[in-house]
Specification:
By secondary structure, the chain is mainly beta. It has strands at residues 4-5, 10-13, 24-27, 34-40, 43-45, 51-54, 56-63, 68-69, 73-77, 85-92, 108-109, 112-116.
Length: 124
């Protein structure tokens, strides 16, 4: 089950995003009225973990409309409480050393987010 997001901003790696029926909880309330989620593009790494090349997040859309989207981010506020949003990310994979030219496809991921005033209790 996806985690509860409380840090502002929160950085989420595109490759590790969970999709499906469960939603990420986004905690927004009077003390913290907005939370920005920044999507981190995929990175190709060498065997030591050092980055070789990085892809990009090329678009963020949301349904239903409400939260403000940027090229690689979305902002949830207390105006969006108790509604589940499906966020569609368009991104490119990092270029590989053995390929020439731009990537042939632009994959997408569609995780769900639900702003609430507090994090739900953890399952035992």
């Amino acid at each position: 089950m996806p985690q509860c997001l409380t840090a502002n901003p929160t950085y989420l790696e595109v490759e590790s995003l969970e999709t499906g029926d469960s939603a990420y909880t986004v905690r927004v309330n009077a003390a913290a009225p907005s939370l920005t989620v920044i999507f981190v593009p995929p990175t190709l790494r060498d065997p030591t973990g050092a980055p070789i090349s990085t892809g990009s997040v090329t678009g963020v859309t949301v349904y239903p409309t409400g939260p403000v989207c940027g090229t690689n981010q979305i902002v949830f506020t207390t105006d969006h409480l108790n509604t589940e949003y499906t966020v569609t990310l368009t991104y490119t994979e990092p270029p590989r050393i053995d390929t020439v030219g731009p990537p042939l496809d632009t994959p997408t991921k569609s995780p769900k987010f639900k702003p609430l005033t507090s994090c739900p209790p953890s399952a035992p």
